[in-house]
């Protein structure tokens, strides 16, 4: 045996694992050194008897197997391996035996490479495996803290979350629609050590009267239809975190009530007289720009109370390499659900990287899913949805609004709203931001005059 590390099990280490079973000492040493320079934990074996016990308990990300070994063949090694494996197996051999090559191709190994193996080919193979490992690790991290990406922008975001999470200071998350503000809020809660629930509410999705009842609760009989006492989100999040999404959409009178609750630490249910103490960590979020004046639509005193620790959630267009990482992860999840094995077509990357992604990660996920469902082979070729004209519009009028003399203001508004919603793929928050109105205004207009009539 040439070298064996005492490191155990792949999941416990932060680097990919490589193994080679080959009695050519020079080739094995060169390969191990090359793998280690690329960040792999490397293990080398000379014989079947040495390799099989270790490989039976481990699942290297890449295993190179020589066909001819002193005490057997590479096929003997494969025969002793567990059937359920993630790692890639590749045969390498200097033998010109056609039957061996044919059997190698039909075995669980993914490739058969003849010796001498060019260093460039080996480096390319190691880099491919390293990329696949990074995707799996990123997916595991995404499951644990809700954030996915290795770009500088995402690393800074995770650092900010780690700094703020252990403290009970209020956090204001600022970021575009679809950039992942709720995922960041959930990561803050997960790292806070608080034992209560994470409760999320979109302040722009509910009318003011209903939002007040949902936030602070109400007593039985406090208004028509209040047949039972209702505990609001503050009480539901007792000992945990309350996430107030789109805080700038909250009606101003309700903001005064919220400020009082934050300053006193008690809530008073609608229709009630008792004050209920609450221990809740507040995280708010807005898609609106943050400047020296605070956030549009938010009272200055409430802004200063919420923005004790502001954090910016980066838009997708500044995250570079994360776009490919996200696209591959979305495809992997779709594969898991559908039982297929599709892959990202690298030819789509240029268009994906050049697109501004106004809908951010949500838009990318939609583009990948559409391409996945439409692909007729094993390759997925996502295209930015916003680059495609609406189905009812020609290339000339897509994204443009045409008015004519004699149209009513209601007709003008309906057409403008319809075109804006089409452009943002139905995202009402993004459409509201483009039009300079609140999401509540969008909902009200849709209720009066459906835009696709």
TrEMBL record:
The lineage of its organism: Bacteria, Pseudomonadati, Pseudomonadota, Gammaproteobacteria, Lysobacterales. One of its GO terms (molecular function) is sequence-specific DNA binding. The modification 4-aspartylphosphate is found at residue 66. It comes from the Bacteria. Keywords: ATP-binding, DNA-binding, Nucleotide-binding, Phosphoprotein, Transcription, Transcription regulation. Gene3D superfamilies: 1.10.8.60, 3.40.50.2300, Homeodomain-like (1.10.10.60), P-loop containing nucleotide triphosphate hydrolases (3.40.50.300). Residues 147-373 form the Sigma-54 factor interaction domain. One of its GO terms (biological process) is regulation of DNA-templated transcription. It comes from Pseudoxanthomonas indica. Residues 17-130 form the Response regulatory domain. This is DNA-binding transcriptional response regulator, NtrC family, contains REC, AAA-type ATPase, and a Fis-type DNA-binding domains.
């Amino acid at each position: 045996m040439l070298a064996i590390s005492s490191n155990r099990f792949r999941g416990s280490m932060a680097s990919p694992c490589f193994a080679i079973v080959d009695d050519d000492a020079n080739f094995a040493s060169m390969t191990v050194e090359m793998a280690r320079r690329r960040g792999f934990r490397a293990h080398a074996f000379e014989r079947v008897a040495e390799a099989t016990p270790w490989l039976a308990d481990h699942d290297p990300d890449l295993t190179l197997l020589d066909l001819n070994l002193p005490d057997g063949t590479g096929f003997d090694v494969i025969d002793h391996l567990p059937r359920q494996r993630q790692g890639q197996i590749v045969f390498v051999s200097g033998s010109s035996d056609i039957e061996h090559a044919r059997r190698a191709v039909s075995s669980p190994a993914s490739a058969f490479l003849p010796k001498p193996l060019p260093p460039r080919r080996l480096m390319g193979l190691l880099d491919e495996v390293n990329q696949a490992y990074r995707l799996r690790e990123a997916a595991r991290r995404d499951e644990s803290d809700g954030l996915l990406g290795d770009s500088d922008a995402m690393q800074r975001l995770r650092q900010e979350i780690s700094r703020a999470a252990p403290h009970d200071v209020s956090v204001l998350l600022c970021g575009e629609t679809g950039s992942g503000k709720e995922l960041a809020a959930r990561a803050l809660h997960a790292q806070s050590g608080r034992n209560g629930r994470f409760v999320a509410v979109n302040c722009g999705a509910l009318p003011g009267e209903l939002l007040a009842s949902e936030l602070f609760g109400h007593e039985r009989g406090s208004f028509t239809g209040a047949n039972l006492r209702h505990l609001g989100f503050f009480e539901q999040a007792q000992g945990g975190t309350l996430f107030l999404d789109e805080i700038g959409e909250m009606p101003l009178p309700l903001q005064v009530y919220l400020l009082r609750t934050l300053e006193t630490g008690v809530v008073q249910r609608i229709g009630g007289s008792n004050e209920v103490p609450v221990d809740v960590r507040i995280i708010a979020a807005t898609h609106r720009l943050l400047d020296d004046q605070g956030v549009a639509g938010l009272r200055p005193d409430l802004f200063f109370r919420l923005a004790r620790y502001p954090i910016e959630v980066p838009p997708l267009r500044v995250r570079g390499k994360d776009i490919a990482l996200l696209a591959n992860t979305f495809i992997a999840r779709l594969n898991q659900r559908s039982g297929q094995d599709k892959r990202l077509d690298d030819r789509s990357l240029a268009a994906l990287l050049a697109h501004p992604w106004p809908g951010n990660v949500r838009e990318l996920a939609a583009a990948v899913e559409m391409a996945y469902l439409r692909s007729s082979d094993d390759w997925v070729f996502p295209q930015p949805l916003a680059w495609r004209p609406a189905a009812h519009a020609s290339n000339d009028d897509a994204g443009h609004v045409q008015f004519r003399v004699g149209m009513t203001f209601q007709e003008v508004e309906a057409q403008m709203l319809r075109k804006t919603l089409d452009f943002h793929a139905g995202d009402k928050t993004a459409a509201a931001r483009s039009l300079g109105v609140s999401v509540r205004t969008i909902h009200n207009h849709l209720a009066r005059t459906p835009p696709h009539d």
